[in-house]
Structures are given as C-alpha cells and as structure tokens.
C-alpha cells in the first residue's frame, strides 16, 4: 500500500512536472441521487466508531437511512461505452469520502477497464485533487513509458452524518494519450492567500481560475469537478486551507471531445 503526504515544495527554477501526453477525451456529468445503501449492523458499528469524538452530527439511524452513489457507480456510468483501447494508468481523485467504505473504486477499475491498468487514489487535497492526480501521473510516466492515462475527479454527497455535504454528485474524466501533445502541472505549497493570484499569473496566466482564486463558491463539491469540464489551455486553482496552488497547462495537437 502506498501513501502520499503533502506535496514537496517545488523549486522556482522548475515548478512544473510534464506529462508527455495530450488531452484526448473529456467527460463531465452530474448525477441524480443514487440508490446504493449502507444497511447492516457492520456499517452502523463502523460509522459509530469512526464518528466517535468528532462533532459531525452522527446518529446510527442515519446509516440505515443513507442512500447515494459509490465512486464505482459514478465511474461506470460516466465511462460506459467511452473506452475501447487499453489504458495504462488510472488515478482517482476526490476530497470527500466514497459512499461505501467496503468498496474500492481503484480495484474495480483495474478489473473492468481495458488493459487492466494500474490504478491509484489521491484524496485529502480539497479542490486541488485533480491537480495532484496529474502530478502523480506525470511522475509515474516519467519512470515507466505509458501510452494512455485516465484521470477521474469525483465527488458524492451521500454521507451518514449531518456534516457539510457537496451540492451534487459529479464526476469528470480526462483521458490523455501519447502523441497528442503534452501537459504541464504544478502543485505548489506554502503560498499565502494574498499572493496566490499573482503567483499563478507569474508562472502561467490562466484562461480559467477556480473558486479558490476568484472567491466564488465551489458548485460541485470539494473536489471542484466542474473546473475540469471543457478545460481551457491553462487553468489554476488555490486551496486556502492548505495554502497550495495548482496550475495545469494543456498543449494539444487536436481538440478533445466534447463533454457529456
């Protein structure tokens, strides 16, 4: 099992990691409330232990009432009929937890996607989850040549406690392929809120700024899935909680497909 900590500070001479692939396909979708359930004493005991000592508005009755979408169901619906060629690597990015902790989206995706790809998850990075996923992918491709990489950014709102919930279940998929351009990504910690916009503009002025740089509310949960719908040439976002800036620049040889 691999675990990723906070991003290591990048040098000012080379802040970008390069994924030697261009963006081929973009898919984005919002979902209706799911029908998956958490019934059973095992889940009640699990969430009771998990919530102990945390003021998250938990009660055992909420487990029996909970209903939602798992990351597996979101991925399967989003990708249905979209992938026919082998994929080498998949990175699943999210901030909030999966609906059912008994299920593993990476394990399932390895089994069902063409090529049996190596699959990982990154989480706990707020609205920069997608940026970190691309940074991880760039590191793997640098060590092992690959032809296709799939990034999945997902968020779901079905939680068995009364804490703050995302406003929608949503997912974005970005398929990258060798020979179709390149992608640069930077994840820079230690940036003060007052300096974030100037720092982003100094490195690569963005065509789209995320809510962390504009002050607007995040419309699709803490993972900012909507930011990745129809991505422009350069996009940037900032996580004020962690003081981290994310920038991604796409150099395309052809235009990606339109999102769903």
UniProtKB/TrEMBL annotation:
InterPro entries given in the database record: Thiolase-like
Domain of life, per lineage: Bacteria
Designated name of the protein: Uncharacterized protein
């Amino acid at each position: 099992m691999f675990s990723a900590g906070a991003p290591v500070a990048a040098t000012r001479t080379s802040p970008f990691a390069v994924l030697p692939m261009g963006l081929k396909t973009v898919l984005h979708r919002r979902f209706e409330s799911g029908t998956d359930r958490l019934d059973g004493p095992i889940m009640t005991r699990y969430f009771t232990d998990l919530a102990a000592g945390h003021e998250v508005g938990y009660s055992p009755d909420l487990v029996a009432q909970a209903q939602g979408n798992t990351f597996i169901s979101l991925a399967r619906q989003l990708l249905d009929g979209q992938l026919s060629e082998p994929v080498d690597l998949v990175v699943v990015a999210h901030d909030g937890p999966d609906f059912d902790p008994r299920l593993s989206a990476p394990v399932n995706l390895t089994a069902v996607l063409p090529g049996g790809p190596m699959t990982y998850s990154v989480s706990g990075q707020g609205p920069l989850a997608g940026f970190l996923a691309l940074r991880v992918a760039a590191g793997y491709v640098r060590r092992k040549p690959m032809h296709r990489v799939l990034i999945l950014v997902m968020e779901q709102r079905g939680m068995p406690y009364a804490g703050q919930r995302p406003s929608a279940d949503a997912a974005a998929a970005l398929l990258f392929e060798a020979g179709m351009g390149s992608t640069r990504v930077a994840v820079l910690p230690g940036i003060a809120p007052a300096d974030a916009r100037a720092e982003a503009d100094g490195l690569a002025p963005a065509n789209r700024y995320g809510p962390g740089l504009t002050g607007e509310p995040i419309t699709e949960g803490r993972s900012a899935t909507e930011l990745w719908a129809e991505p422009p040439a350069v996009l940037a976002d900032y996580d004020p909680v962690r003081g981290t800036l994310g920038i991604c620049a796409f150099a395309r040889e052809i235009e990606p497909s339109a999102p769903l």
